[in-house]
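ok posting inputs for the adenosine-5'-diphosphate job
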Amino acid sequence: MQGDSSTMRRGKRATAPTATRAPYVTIALAIVAAALLAHFGDASMAPWLMGAAAAALGAAVVLLQTTRFGTSDENSYATAPAALTVRPSDAEVILKARAVELRAEERTKLLDALTDAVILVDAHGETRFANEAAVERFGEENAVLGTRRAFDQFPAHVRRGVLGLAECDDAARRRFEFDWQGDRHAPVVVHATRADSHRQGFVAILIRDVRVEREADRMKTEFVSKASHELRTPLSSLRAYAELVVDREYSNEDEHDRFLRVILSEADRLSRLVDHMLDISRIESGIARADLTDTDVAALCRVCVDEQQGEAKRRGISLALTRTTPGTRVPADGGLLKQVVLNLVSNALKYTPDGGRVEVEVDFDALAREVVVSVRDNGLGIPADALPQLFGKFYRVAGHEKVAKGTGLGLNLCRNIVEEMHGGKIGVDSEVGRGSRFWFAIPAEATLRKAA
Ligand code: ADP
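and the output
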């Protein structure tokens, strides 16, 4: 951001030095003078002709000097000893000017590529440069450049801070954070930096909209507070039952064993919760990798159904893989997909009364070119107003906590695995009292986004 402000202005082009035309004019004038003297150079020469010749010669000498030694600040050869002077050729001068011009263009392109608004203001708060994001924020370039239009939109304390910087040493900087008012209402961070080396008091101002970062921070804080709350419940239960055992506050062996079983089940719940939290955060942060290989989804569902058969039998629930079609192979991470199916089947069992029915179906949707897995139950069902939040973190349908223990993270993990790691879709249809159908679809072709 340092340097001559003229190079910062948008669209301003450097011009070739006018001195490049001077040698030709010099030669022409010298020829005119010589011709005049040759023809009339004796005592009969008219005074006006003598004067014209003298003027032409004088002009030729002055131009010659200007051309040879230059008069600009950056090229003041006139004062340098002739023997030490290296005079740049015209081509060199043009190349140098073009290089300066290109550097300025590159700088402008770079600044225009930023999504943050950047302006350069002088010591009066007038805009000397505005990148594209700034033009978008503050309005038409012509209306902004050379005016205080942009500067006046900052709150008073920021304006004071920026003008204070204009009087500081080079590279002095300040950071401001506030809510931008008006149309573009949003939290912003503003970085102001003294940005010139010629003591002209220029300050570069960068404005960053931090709404997305703030929202991410808010969600993180919410996640941590919900997670701590969810962790505390099994922990206090563990502690209470462990104390009962240690203090021998049980009346018989059966009660002693029951307390120990509660401790075991709470420890399991705690480790499931921690596992889910870790899995979700690994996927969301992009650390988790999907190992996509050719996977037979129907075979995978059969394994899941078999694994859950013990629990289904214990509850008197009929559990079966009722439909499969050919062509259910997809590029997928078998381990992760199995986690999804197990989660959906175990939920179906949890929220279906004893003696109910759970069915798993695998279809190939030829039109959408995806394999669709459905897990149907004839259990409790889910109220319509709960459906939009069902795949969120720590969400549990009111009243369901009395029916079965859970973490409220299982469906969120399923959604992350299906959508983030396999480029698929997940959803639910449900009716209270009649049951639910949870489904997910995995693309058959590898248009998948692997987690980095
Ligand atoms: P949880 O560990 O609590 O089961 P999930 O994220 O897997 O967590 O599910 C979130 C909530 O969705 C559950 O607490 C339950 O209220 C509801 N739910 C999930 N599956 C079903 C289902 N098959 N039938 C009814 N409600 C369900």
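notes: The chain has a mean pLDDT of 83. The pocket of adenosine-5'-diphosphate is lined by residues 343, 347-348, 351, 377, 379-380, 382, 390, 395-397, 400, 406-412, 436 (CB under 6 Å).
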